[in-house]
Design a protein that fits this description.
With 209 residues, this protein is of the alpha/beta class. It has one domain: Rossmann fold (3-Layer(aba) Sandwich), CATH 3.40.50. It is 35% helix and 24% strand. It is built from six helices and nine strands, in the order βαβαβαβαβαββαββ. The strands form two sheets. Strands 3-2-1-4-5-6-7 form a seven-stranded mixed β-sheet, covered by helices on one side. Strand 8 and strand 9 form a beta hairpin. It is globular and about 45 Å long. The protein binds 5-O-phosphono-beta-D-ribofuranosylamine. 5-O-phosphono-beta-D-ribofuranosylamine (GRF) binds next to helix 1 and helix 6. 5-O-phosphono-beta-D-ribofuranosylamine binds next to helix 1 and helix 6.
Length: 209
């Protein structure tokens, strides 16, 4: 059984997609053992509590120095002995030590087709604002392994979503969530939980069924 810890920052719609997918049997051999938010009082913590999942807020604001926040985050994570750490709308830079300690065991969902519209400053609604500003006709989402870079780890899966006339960043964000994020992330967790993918020379390989 894959032990999954989900890191969140806000609404938690991706967390909810994982909870619902486990419930519905679209994800097997996995359980969410804890949820950690860097923000207090957010909907993602409520979603975890409603699902009976241990939920914690570990906020950088509660620590004098960044490294103390990193230590607290890592200590809580280690306590739950995760096989997989899922960044689901988590808007905090992952500490280097955590990337190394959980190497190839951290995945992230990013709301664009990497390598477009990603990297420093590209998160949340900002991604969709830039997509509309540039006038691209197709965007989407990417689920990838996390390495030392920002949105640079091996890509697990991607899904394209059409930009439509009259889209606002909010409308586009919702469509990318519905049509891409909420499908890609649970599917990636199910693949990992059932040993269907591995990383070779920086690329994700799907094992032949
Ligand atoms: C959204 O911008 C989503 O595209 C990205 O993180 C943000 C919040 O997602 N992955 P969630 O509703 O908290 O899962």
């Amino acid at each position: 059984m894959l032990r999954v810890v989900v890191l969140v920052s806000g609404g938690g719609t991706n967390l909810q997609a994982i909870i619902d997918s486990i419930e519905a049997g679209r994800i097997t051999n996995a359980q969410i053992v804890a949820v950690i938010s860097n923000n207090p009082g957010v909907k993602s913590l409520e979603r975890a509590e409603k699902a009976g999942i241990p939920a914690f807020c570990i906020s950088p604001k509660d620590f004098e120095r960044r490294e103390l926040f990193h230590e607290a985050l890592l200590a809580r994570l280690d306590e739950y002995e995760p096989d997989l750490v899922v960044l689901a709308g988590f808007l905090v830079r992952i500490p280097e030590e955590m990337v190394h300690k959980y190497s190839s065991r951290i995945i992230n969902i990013h709301p664009s087709l990497i390598p477009s519209f990603c990297g420093v400053g590209y998160y949340g609604l900002k991604v969709h604002e830039k997509v509309l500003e540039r006038g691209v006709k197709v965007t989407g989402a990417t689920v990838h392994f996390v390495n030392e870079g920002m949105d640079e780890g091996p890509i697990i899966a991607q899904k394209a979503v059409y930009v439509e006339q009259g889209d606002t960043p909010q409308i586009l964000q919702r469509r990318v969530m519905e049509q891409a994020e909420w499908q890609l992330l649970p599917a990636a967790i199910d693949d990992i939980a059932n040993g269907r993918i591995r990383v070779a020379e920086g690329k994700v390989i799907r094992k032949e069924d």
